[in-house]
Amino acid sequence: MTNIEATGRQLVEALEGSSADYIEARLEESQRSHITYRGRELESIGQATAIGGNVRALVRGGWGFVSFNNLSDLPGRIELAVKQARLVGNEESKLALVEPVVDIVSSEIDKNPMTMPLAEKKQLLDEYNALIWRTPKLQTSIIAYGDSHKKVIFLNSSGSYIEQERSDITLRLTAVAAEDSEVQQVGLSAGSSGDFGSIHGLHQQVEQMAKHAVELLSAPQVKGGEYTVVLDPILAGVFVHEAFGHLSESDFVYENDHLRQIMVLGKKFGSTELNIVDSATIPGLRGSYRYDDEGVPATKTYLIREGKLVGRLHSRETAAKMGEQPTGNARAINYRYPPIVRMTNTYIEPGSASFEQIIGDIKEGVYAKNWFGGTTSMEMFTFSAGEAYMIRHGKLAEALRPVVLTGNVFNTLNNIDAIGNDLEMNQGGGCGKGAQVPLPVSNGSPHIRIRKCLVGGR
Hints:
Layout: H1 3-16, E1 22-38, E2 41-59, E3 62-68, H2 74-88, E4 102-105, H3 118-132, E5 138-156, E6 161-179, E7 182-192, H4 203-215, E8 225-231, H5 233-245, H6 250-254, H7 257-262, E9 276-279, E10 300-305, E11 308-309, H8 316-322, E12 330-331, E13 340-341, E14 345-348, H9 355-360, E15 364-369, E16 373-377, E17 380-384, E18 387-392, E19 395-400, E20 404-408, H10 409-414, E21 416-419, E22 424-426, E23 431-433, E24 436-439, E25 442-445, E26 448-456
């Protein structure tokens, strides 16, 4: 029995004697490693382990939260969390009812990245870095690799006791080319729920990434204006996550009068072919799990179904406040934070069109791929594509410098008039919210076609 397993057994009895309306505890053991290159040089490499936990207490509608990295004096931690909650609460406590769960969820042993020597991980990244620097006109490059394996125990005063193990891997590469006053960059990202093989064999993509950064130095810039735009699965997935997914997190909806008036269940947001889903139940994806960090079973939640808003993402508290069902979307990045409403694997379901059909009747348009980043403000968004190409008379034409897409998410959803049959999930990157970053998620989509999309250019 490990330290946190023994501590978990002790906590069961301690929670039963609490005077809070509700109380829960989370214990965590984690291992992680990282490797970072900047330019030709290895910048940082290392491994770390951590152990800790937290107690969260609810009294009269107010929360108390205590985190710790010393497993002694657990009764004192519980007492402090309850005292904090008493200072806050002055109303009735509300949590959606869920059945208590007792379960042990093990990860697949052959998918624990911590069993691989750090030198072996570095060897692969050395190969990628050498490939990048075979390309002339590069100014710099960045490689950032990270992996982790954690065991988490969750228990609460309702009788739940859950042990879960999770692994995670991320890799992000960026090549930056420069000539005279011009600078261009291209990125590549990958990840998995612990399978190191997912970042093997990227040599061709890495080499092409560096070459494309140089090619962009002489690529033309699109003329700014409204175009029919086709998004590849990566950029469409980022769009659905950033521009729409965050608006579906119910703590955001509950606390914002303007958004509550917009995000009304049953409202039409797109064609009958449009279905947007958030699901932690898909095996092998970085956002998947059996139970969330409140012990609620993972679900598949339709956010938009046949063009209409039909659901949103909930914790137990937001579900109770809004009179809806919990969806198992309360997540914390680690034991130092309380769980908040977060996405898992968010995607547009595939339609019926082939890529050739999607671009076939476009006289002049833009094909946007991959991503650099972007910003959102309520329903407005701005995204930078990693690659772009003109579409002329139904065919892909010249490469463009990366484009910026801007618009209103609800207008954009309504302007999606073709959805591909080629769903892909993007496993790179992570999600940030409330200082908790990067949380493992994935997002995806088929190719989608958007009419009247504003593209920034010369």
